[in-house]
Amino acid sequence: MYVIVAGGGMVGGRLVRRLLDNKHDVVLIEQHKEICDKLYAETGVVAINGSATSIEALNGAGINKPMLSLLQRAATLITSLARYWLRVLMCPRL
């Protein structure tokens, strides 16, 4: 899954590590260059030095990718649920 993490502090840094350990594609947006450099050196995460409220930083991080991935996953889930309920309704149990 493609994930953008806003902030590389205690929580954000831990989240970045865990996501990378689980083989997710992660981009970090962090205002402090030292934190960007530290997390990149430790984990190899793609780190963008900027504000997560900045359109430029969000576009640089690929803000559209997670949304597309989320929409694709939602569509797959809806299709799976529809197929399940069709089976249940079409094949009533005796």
Descriptive overview:
There is one protein chain. The protein is of the alpha/beta class and 94 residues long. The chain has one domain (2-90): Rossmann fold. The protein contains four helices and three strands, in the order βαβαβαα. The protein has helices spanning 10-21, 33-43, 55-61, 64-90, and strands at 2-6, 25-30, 46-49. It has a three-stranded parallel sheet with strand order 1-2-3, with helices on both faces. The radius of gyration is 19 Å and the shape is elongated.
Task: Provide the descriptors you would attach to this structure in a database record.
single chain, 94 residues, alpha/beta, Rossmann fold, three-stranded parallel β-sheet, 3 strands, 16% strand, elongated
Which series of helices and strands comes N to C? EHEHEHH
Broad CATH class: Alpha Beta
Average of the residue pLDDT scores: 85
Named CATH topology: Rossmann fold
Please give the alpha-carbon distance between the first and last residues: 42 Å
